[in-house]
Amino acid sequence: MVKITLISLLLPIKIASIILNPHSITEKRIGIVCSSIPINRSMNGIRNESRMATFAYQIINRGDILISEVLFNPKTGGVDFVEIYNNSGHEIDLKELQLANANTAGEPASIKNVSAVKLMIAPSTYWVITINQANIKQNYQAKFPNQFVQLSSLPAYNNDKGSVILLSNNQILDRLDYNAKIHHPLIQDEDGISLERVSFSVGANESGNFKSAAATVGYASPTYKNSQELNGGENYARLLSKTFSPDGDNFEDLMTLEYQVAENASLANVNVYNDKGRLVRKLLKNQTIGTNGALTWDGLNDDGQKAAIGIYVVLFDVFDLNGNTKRFKNTCVLAGKLN
């Protein structure tokens, strides 16, 4: 039997004992989070107006932390990365995690500890594991640059196919068996394009649950929500403002078009026409897009010249590999000072 004694952090001292049967514990290690709750504050626990300490026992279970994104075929000069997502409702210590690949028998191999020191990550956050975080930040937009863990080496992840395995105390938490054929079939060069998880509600190896990251986010989304993650919302494409004036005064200098599509792995063409129906600017041409995002137009035409003041039509055409198409039409005014 295992006996755990809890002592409150504030006087008067109270002691509570809990007896645990080791045979009922499914993991080898129990994480303990202790939080003292002062007046008007809550930290890592439930608000407690009596000022008593709050204790929680947390075991890393399968499904608590998941593989979110993998770059296994970087561009020349680039490096691999694995992104993980805290799918639980509590903090998780990265010191308790390991990364691995698989040997010829399909078993975990080349196991690497994710962190040598205690490193707690908050729920619903994305963390990137790599050997060179500066390289990733240089090649992709990392919205949360502090959510990186840099290792001296990663398990080898081959460019054609392989396995990414996430473990805790040598117990498998999540596993992705990937191959280059998972990438979008219309992508001719997969180098530098990550695979993103579509849904955390189904297994990593469920068919269609990993897709190529969208071109509109730069082909990877390290440290933040995946571009191909399902949103379950309506389809739309709309302008933030009906007018813009690209005069450099930092007020509505750009036309911004927000969009959302229900289908992931979609492609889009986005074109700007003047009031005579003449094509002025191609914003996107057969590029993969995320399930939501935003596009901007700086008021320049395809030749890099300033477009004339006037009314413009923005056509957003989206299509998928099943032949489904949608068109969204928006009208804006490019404003400016008359000479």
Automatic annotation (TrEMBL):
It comes from Pedobacter frigidisoli. Pfam families: FlgD_ig (PF13860), LTD (PF00932). InterPro entries: FlgD/Vpr_Ig-like, Lamin_tail_dom, Lamin_tail_dom_sf. This is LTD domain-containing protein. Residues 53-180 form the LTD domain.
